[in-house]
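Design request, tokens follow.
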């Protein structure tokens, strides 16, 4: 069930009416039941695998508190390893197998005839990171393990963020699950407005843009020279509208139920450098990697050289987290190099604070370096990198810029500029107590949706991760 589908809306409406009037205890059972039902609509076998992960990590979290010393550390390492193996088998085994086959061919041996077919559970990267952060926080004694199995199961099966995050921290979400949810009128208004805006930008920007991308980036060898300078920004806005739209939907649904999720995007395309960009894009992942990988590796505590090595490790992992393929590995290394290059410029005094021209040029460069990097997602073999570089060696024709793309982006541009002007920490329409403003917003979204939304629904882009 996609958030932007009649099926989900009809199911959620029935669920919410019961949830709103139910007692606190009944609400907990409703959350868990709807989470299981929601996830099972994608694949029943994947739901069984998720349940195994829930039971394992809940039990291990409880068991860790009974141990001390080396036994506790060994058990903890075993638990983290088990989660990584679980993720690796279902997400990376096929890629490793194909890589082994490519290496055999490269050394003159016959390729592999058999290709394994392994189910890739949707959202596995997100809920596995959920569980790893839970075990780390329990081991570091930042939180107490869940005593109630249902509380932990809801934490793993909380349906607004179950498929695509954000990767919510246990220290934020679990206390909310354990406490009573108070739903105020402004929670409902804010939740609905966020959900509507999320569906809107997904359906009227992300979906049409994905069709444009599929047409214009199907095979790199047949592309018009220089067209990738135009296609790359379209991909960037497609992914932004798609993932930001899902995050808004998740935040809106959660707020309607009395929960507050972390904000996953904070106008990243206004960033003037790569470090600022990754503090505003997919915030839950970048902060997760910072806290659970970068800092654990030593962070910036062992000198400038070691700090940059740690950054490269982090972004290599970020690349393979996004997917099993050559393009994702190259993309991760590329992002790491962008950050290291910026930090070197800053370290040697080449970046001037408060320089307006440098900030504007930095914003353009940061946006394009990110956009061009997204082309790597579409690489199926290392040889295609050369085709991308050859295409980018030409300048595009101005006539190649699709005006419909520019027009379609207007609402998103207006919203982000407005939020930047207001310096909001979280996306908001300031209409929680203004129903007439809400009705105006609803009418505008309906009108624009009628003009520009394509018929038919597409999966969210990050489902593949």
């Amino acid at each position: 069930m996609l958030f932007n589908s009649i099926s989900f809306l009809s199911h959620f409406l029935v669920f919410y009416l019961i949830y709103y009037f139910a007692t606190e205890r009944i609400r907990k059972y409703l959350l868990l039941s709807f989470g299981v039902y929601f996830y099972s609509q994608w694949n029943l076998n994947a739901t069984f695998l998720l349940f195994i992960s829930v039971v394992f990590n809940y039990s291990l979290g409880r068991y860790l508190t009974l141990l001390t010393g080396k036994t506790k550390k060994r058990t903890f390492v075993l638990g983290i390893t088990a989660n990584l193996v679980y993720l690796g088998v279902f997400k990376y085994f096929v890629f490793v197998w194909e890589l082994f086959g490519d290496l055999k061919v490269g050394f003159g041996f016959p390729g592999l005839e058999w290709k394994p077919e392994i189910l890739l559970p949707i959202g596995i990267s997100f809920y596995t990171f959920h569980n790893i952060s839970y075990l780390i926080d329990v081991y570091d004694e930042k939180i107490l393990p869940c005593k109630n199995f249902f509380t932990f199961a809801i934490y793993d099966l909380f349906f607004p963020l179950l498929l695509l995050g954000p990767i919510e921290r246990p220290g934020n979400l679990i206390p909310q699950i354990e406490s009573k949810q108070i739903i105020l009128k402004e929670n409902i208004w804010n939740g609905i407005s966020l959900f509507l805006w999320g569906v809107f930008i997904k359906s009227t920007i992300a979906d049409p843009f994905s069709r444009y991308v599929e047409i214009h980036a199907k095979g790199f060898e047949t592309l018009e020279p220089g067209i990738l300078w135009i296609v790359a920004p379209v991909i960037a806005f497609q992914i932004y509208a798609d993932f930001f739209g899902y995050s808004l939907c998740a935040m809106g649904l959660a707020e309607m139920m009395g929960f507050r999720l972390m904000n996953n995007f904070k106008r990243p395309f206004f960033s003037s450098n790569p470090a600022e960009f990754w503090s505003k894009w997919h915030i839950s992942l970048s902060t997760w990697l910072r806290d659970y990988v970068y800092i654990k590796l030593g962070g910036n505590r062992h000198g400038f050289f070691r700090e940059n090595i740690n950054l490269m490790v982090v972004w290599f992992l970020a690349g393979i987290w996004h997917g099993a393929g050559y393009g994702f590995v190259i993309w991760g290394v590329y992002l790491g190099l962008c950050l290291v290059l910026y930090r070197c410029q800053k370290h040697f005094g080449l970046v001037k604070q408060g320089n307006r021209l440098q900030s504007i040029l930095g914003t353009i460069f940061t946006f394009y370096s990110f956009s061009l990097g997204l082309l790597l997602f579409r690489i199926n073999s290392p040889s295609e990198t050369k085709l991308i570089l050859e295409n980018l060696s030409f300048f595009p024709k101005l006539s190649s810029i699709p005006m419909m793309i520019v027009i379609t982006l207007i609402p998103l541009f207006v919203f982000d500029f407005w939020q930047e002007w207001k310096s909001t920490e979280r996306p908001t329409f300031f209409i929680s107590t203004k129903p007439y403003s809400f009705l105006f917003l609803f009418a505008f979204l309906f009108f624009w949706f009628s003009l520009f939304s394509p018929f038919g629904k597409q999966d969210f882009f990050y489902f593949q991760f």
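Comment from the thread starter after seeing the answer: thanks! The first helix runs from residue 6 to 21.
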